[in-house]
Write a structure and sequence with these properties.
Layout lengths: L8 H10 L9 E7 L5 E7 L2 E7 L5 H14 L8 E5 L4 E5 L6 H7 L4 H19 L7 H4 L5 H17 L10 H15 L4 E3 L8 E4 L2 E4 L6 E3 L1 H9 L9 H15 L5 H25 L9 H12 L6 H21 L1
Antiparallel strand pairs: 1-2, 2-3, 3-5, 4-5, 6-9, 7-8
Helix pairs in contact: 4-9, 6-7, 6-10, 7-10, 8-10, 10-11, 11-12
Length: 337
């Protein structure tokens, strides 16, 4: 049974104003998942009714972006949770409860049914196509940020600091050749056509509710290459059940559905960038933020990065680094057994 959470006086006052005839004694409260950031989520339930209360420091610039993007995009697409009320003083947001079935959980629940998993991924890709086809005039908040050269360079620095150096101890391989290759990768990806991207489009940020696809954690949305989100989804280390062949079939489905012809190299470059960003996050969160559960995703993320880089021979130093990190991680795992 989930432990009942104690609500603060400010939260109780907010809920009394937001929910008709709210009586805390009649509602159950539980933690509704965790985020990589300092935000947390409380699920409030009473009989057949439920909400999610987001507790989030409103001094965070993404707080306002979350509110504005939801307003702007929900006019055009049904994917984002409805927001019922907000409190800018205490950083509280009451939103629609999208349930507990993330795409990750859906895959875990259907591990023995490849057809079901493939079908839901196609449905998610259909939704992503609609998101990416939004007119660029829809939200100035999305337009305010872009996956530019500096952002891509930051991602590979993040990887080099928190995964290569802090987690794997392979910093000796961060040579001038590494610098040249990451600069070239950032240059190429920053020149790709830009659409609306989610920026963190992985299986814990996609919900399946009443057989419909919904998106959460979208405050980082910006302009960027379409394949960045596709790679975030199809190369997601949280889901290990997709084979290389299944990933390629889903990528082909995406290109046919969206009418894109960008090619495999574009996808592979975006996948390399995304996986390095994710590996930096896993290293940082597990070592420096006390969230050790992220460690378990580092080996599969490195395996996928090595696989992607094997298709990009011009980035052989980055591949050498990824291979060395993978060897280091697997060696340490064997010693612990």
């Amino acid at each position: 049974m989930n432990q009942q959470l104690q609500l603060t006086p400010a939260q109780l006052d907010f809920l009394k104003n937001a929910i008709d005839r709210f009586n805390p004694d009649e509602w159950s409260t539980e933690l509704a998942g965790h985020a990589g950031s300092s935000r947390y989520f409380i699920r409030l339930s009473k009989e057949e009714t439920s909400y999610v209360l987001i507790v989030w420091d409103c001094r965070d610039e993404d707080w306002d972006r979350f509110i504005v993007m939801q307003r702007d995009i929900s006019v055009h697409l049904p994917f984002l949770p409805e927001i019922y009320k907000k409190d800018t003083t205490h950083g509280l947001i009451l939103e629609e409860d999208l349930g507990k079935c993330t795409l990750k959980q859906y895959c875990l629940d259907n591990l023995n049914d490849n057809q079901k998993i493939t079908s839901v991924y196609k449905k998610v890709l259909d939704a992503l196509c609609k998101w990416q086809n939004l007119d660029l005039s829809v939200s100035q908040s999305v337009n305010a940020r872009a996956m530019d050269y500096d952002t891509f360079m930051w991602e590979t620095w993040y990887f080099s600091k928190f995964c290569v150096t802090d987690f794997c101890g392979c910093e000796a391989l961060l040579t001038k050749k590494w610098e040249r290759e990451r600069e070239e990768l950032a240059r190429r990806t920053s020149l790709l056509p830009r659409v609306y991207i989610h920026r963190d489009f992985q299986s814990e940020n996609v919900m399946i509710k009443n057989d419909a696809v919904r998106f959460v954690d979208f405050q980082g949305a910006r302009l960027g290459p379409a394949e960045y989100d596709v790679a975030s989804l199809l190369c997601d280390p949280y889901v290990s059940c997709l084979s290389r062949e299944e990933i390629l079939k889903l990528l082909t489905y995406y290109y046919e559905t969206c009418g894109r012809t960008d090619g495999d190299d574009v996808f592979n470059m975006c996948a390399a960038q995304r996986l390095m960003q994710a590996l930096g996050a896993y290293g940082n969160l597990s070592i420096h933020k006390g969230k050790e559960w992220y460690k378990e995703f580092i080996p599969i993320a490195l395996e996928r990065l090595v696989g992607i880089l094997s298709l990009l021979p011009e980035f052989d130093q980055i591949n050498l680094i990824a291979q060395s990190c993978l060897y280091s991680v697997l060696k340490n795992d064997r010693h612990k057994q």
